Every structure is written in structure tokens, then in C-alpha cells.
Amino acid sequence: MNRFACIRALGAFLALATVPAAPAGADPASVITVFAAASLHEAFTAAGPAFTKATGTAVTFSFAGSDSLEQQLAQGAPADVFASANELQMQKAVAAGITGSDPKTFARNRLVIVVPSGNPAKIASAADLAKSGVKVVFAAPTVPVGAYTRAGLKKLDGRPGYAADFDAAVEKNVVSNELDVKAVATKISLGEGDAGVVYATDVAPLGTKVETIDFPPDSVAEATYPIATVKTAPNPKGAQAFVDFILSPAGQAFLKARGFISP
Predict the structure, then answer these.
(1) Which of 21, 22, 109, 143 is most buried, judged by most C-beta within 10 A?
(2) Structural domain 3-108+224-257, CATH architecture
(3) Cα–Cα distance for residue pair 198/205, rounded to 1 Å
(4) Per-residue pLDDT of the chain (263 residues; tens, 9 = 90+)
(5) Could you give the CA distance from residue 57 to residue 254 in angstroms, rounded to a whole number?
(6) Topology of domain 111-213, per CATH?
(7) CA–CA gap between residue 122 and residue 140 (Å, rounded)
């Protein structure tokens, strides 16, 4: 098993291991479990109480890399809703017969380069990620943010100021491939790397521990977030209610407040 396969396997295990238990004695019809991309942690955690107040349905969350969540759903992990940070993992879920409703795009996000406070490696632009000795931290290629990152770097190959093999040069500087975007953000905030790539929404929770650098225009695609109910949802009515809430103005307000872009 190669190292990326190991990363996926570990991520899948962690996603299953962190599924919260429903309150003791709770009526299954009054509780739902949402599998959601790690980058949605702050927004969904804030939205949860408002959803419960509006519907009477309690909600628990399992946050991890979308690839790990999709893999666990494919293996039968119990959940009511799946919210992915990219369309690929949702398409896999649809193809596997996991989803119980047509996926709907509920948010978008953009990628930024993040460096530790003070920028000790003096990263001024994306081009500096390829400089010798720079320690780069990415999410694994199977994780949505890791895939978005690598696709964007490849688009920079051969542009003015970038070598023809720019993406390969950056990859040589990668010292760690993380299980999800939050792990990338944490490592950079702790100074365990010179630069990483995260979603713009992951920056605010880090406060002054990090600084950001934008990618060149039109180089990195915006991340697209789809949501759907799970076909085997223990609480299908509650699952659809959560999807509807997130798509509603009330749910969208929690996403916008944390920097997500409207779908």
C-alpha cells in the first residue's frame, strides 16, 4: 500500500471513529448525523443550534476530509446527510447509490497560500513555493483541497515567472500530506512548515498566527460544495430538513458569516 493509500485508510478510520453518538435514549426520529467536510466545521457547528431550534431535530456532526467521509459511507457508516468540499466525492457517492436526493451546491470557497506569522521563509508569491529549501504542507491528493491545489499549480506551469515543471518542483518541497485542510492550517500556524494551501475560510479561526498570500488570478478554481441526503438515512425526514435549512437564507447566513461564497 503506497503512502497516499495509507493516508486514505487512516482518514476513513478516523471519520468513522469520530461519529458522535446520539443522546442516550433519544428518539431516532429527533436526531440526525451529518458527515461534512472539515472546512465546514465552524459554519455548521454554528448553524446546528439554529436548525434544532427551527425543527426540533438535534444534529451531530462528523467532520473529516470528504474522501474519507465518502469512503466510510460506501462501507455502510450510518449518516443522514453528506456535505462534500468538492463534486468528485459527491459524484462517487451518487455512482455508488449512497445518496438519497439529488446533490445541491450550497457554497463555494477559494484557496489561499498560508504562511506562519512573520513569514520566516519570505514567501512573496506562489512562485516561491518551488524555491529550494521551502517546506510545503499540503493536504493529500485524494482530499479535495489537495486536489484543487495541485490542479492550480499545474495551470501555472510555463506562465511568465514559472518554470515549465513548476508543479513538480513544488511537489518536491512537500514535507507533509495531511488528512484534511484543518490539519494543514494547524501545522502552518505552529510553524511546522513554511507555507501551505487552505481555504480562505480556514484562516480566520487562526487569528494572528498566520498570514495569507493570494494565488495569481484564474490559476486556482473555486471549491464547490454539494450536499445531499444519504439513501439509508435513519431519519430521512430530518435529513431533508437539514439540507433545506442549509440552502435557505437562514442557513446561508451562517456560511456567509464565515467567508463562504454563495453558490
Answers:
(1) 143
(2) 3-Layer(aba) Sandwich (3.40)
(3) 12
(4) 444 444 444 444 444 434 444 444 445 568 999 999 999 999 999 999 999 999 999 999 999 999 999 999 999 999 999 999 999 999 999 999 999 999 999 999 999 999 999 999 999 999 999 999 999 999 999 999 999 999 999 999 999 999 999 999 999 999 999 999 999 999 999 999 999 999 999 999 999 999 999 999 889 999 999 999 999 999 999 999 999 999 999 999 999 999 999 99
(5) 18
(6) D-Maltodextrin-Binding Protein; domain 2 (3.40.190)
(7) 24
